[in-house]
Amino acid sequence: MVNVKAGRTATIKDLKAQRCFTDKNCFSNSHIKFLNVLNCKIMDRFQIKGAPTCRVVYPQGLFEKRAVKGTEGDPKYNAIIIVPKSDEVKIKQVTEEYNKAFAELQAKGFKGKSPSAINPKNNCWIDGDAWADREEGKDSFRGYMCLKVASKNFRPIVTDKTKKSILNGVPIPGLTVDQMSDETLEDGDYILCNVSFWVYNNSAAQGIGANVHAVVRMAEGERIGGASSNVEDYIDLEGYE
Question: What gap in Å lies between CA 204 and CA 201, rounded to an integer?
Fold first, then answer.
């Protein structure tokens, strides 16, 4: 979402400042036409359907902007949503939406015959096994498809099952105590989510990005990304208690 004051429509200057965009509902028809000048297109939002088998990795990035590892540029709201390959229904649904985005990328002049032709840094829907083969420290992603989501200005909606906002220690102005959840969203938790793809093909880069618009925490899950948060994995306290 373009960062503008409440009640003001985004201007052409705002659009140029962001270059590529991730939420078509913030723009008027004239602004959507301007996206075409920049050779970007936002695809339709969709909820990943079915039982909550999707999980979130590095969730704190959904609450506060952080640098996206392996990319250049400003910090963004970002995380990784992983979908088990065993959940064929979800894999099929997300891949079909992704293929629509790839077809749009080709329509905008991308010469690659398949998504594998996209620079991995500019591709948001990736095979966790291939990622682990390519990079050290990614073995936790084996057996999953990984959706890398990022947004420069739009903080995703994150709630518990009762629709109360999860904050993870990062306040939202104007929120009352009754609207706040006691839960936190942790690495590996099971979620429902609403996402969208967007494509870009310009002189700087060509690829497919993704944004997550809303997340509902459904259940606790085992930690996946990063180092363990359990002190017992680092220090043996036997004999000191």
Answer: 8
Q: Give strand pairing partners of 126.
A: 146
Coil, strand, or helix at residue 120? Answer: helix
Global confidence as pTM: 0.80
pLDDT, tens digit, 9 for 90 and up, residues 62-111: 999 998 766 667 899 999 999 999 999 999 999 999 999 999 999 999 99
> Does residue 153 contact residue 175 with C-beta atoms inside 8 Å?
no
| The two structure tokens encoding residue 184 | 């936190």
CA–CA gap between residue 214 and residue 235 (Å, rounded): 38
Q: Record the tokens describing residue 46, joined without a space.
A: 């969709």
CA separation, residue 38 to residues 106, 120, 149, 183 (Å): 15, 22, 21, 41
Give dist(CA 66, CA 168) in Å, integer. Answer: 14
Host H or E run for residue 145: strand 144-151
| Greatest extent of the chain over all pairs of C-alpha atoms, in Å | 70
Short-list 215, 176, 227, CA closest to 61: 215
